[in-house]
Amino acid sequence: MRARDLAIPYQTVDVNTDATAAARLMAEQQLPGLLVLGTDGSPTAILPASQLVKALVPTYVIEDPTLAAVVDEKHADRLCRALAGRSVADCLPVQSGPPPVAVPDDTALEVAALMAQARSPLVAVVETAKDGPHLLGVITASHLLHELLAGSEPDGSQPSHPTPPVV
């Protein structure tokens, strides 16, 4: 199986997208992060949902988590206001490098190795054409696992597994 076959449509934003809009998109679609595109349409970063959550928390609470207990609910409900007027670029991790990118002919194992090496929950699949890069889609870790597990069964069926206990 090749990267082009594994790639699925995925939500993207650009660096100038409003941070609140990006947070809403992640929340509504329950995404672990968003692929951030540059002005030329090429992948430039991954904005993890955890990074947006971090942007909501006041610095003094990050430095001393025990202070979170003294913030009343009325003020906690206003945390999302911290994103007002900020762009996706403002919320990217400081050491944010380019996301892992696969070419359409990469194998599932090459994609898995790229994902593992980058410790990334997703890999962008980009085809380079004369007019520039074209995003074909994204391979998420969960989708890759699903496809690899399906391929591990002799008849192609889904493996049976016990339901995990509810704690």
User: What is the 3D form?
Assistant: globular
Unreliable runs: none
Quick one: how many beta strands? 6
Instruction: Give the neighbour order of strands across the main sheet.
Output: 1-2-3
- How far from one another are the termini? 37 Å
Could you give the order of the helices and strands?
Answer: HEHEEHHHHEHEEH
Gyration radius, in Å: 19 Å
How would you state the average pLDDT, rounded?
85
* SS-based class: alpha/beta
Task: Kindly estimate the percentage of residues that lie in beta strands according to DSSP.
Answer: 15-25%
Largest sheet: 3 strands, mixed
Q: What is the subunit organization of this protein?
A: single chain
Total number of helical segments? Answer: 8
Give the % helix. 25-40%
Descriptive report:
With 167 residues, the chain is α/β, with parallel strands linked by helices. It is built from 8 helices and 6 strands; from the N terminus they run H-E-H-E-E-H-H-H-H-E-H-E-E-H. The chain has a 3-stranded mixed sheet. The chain has a 3-stranded mixed sheet with strand order 4-5-6. The longest helix has 12 residues, at 141-152. The two termini are 37 Å apart.
Observed structural traits:
20% strand, 3-stranded mixed β-sheet, globular, 167 residues
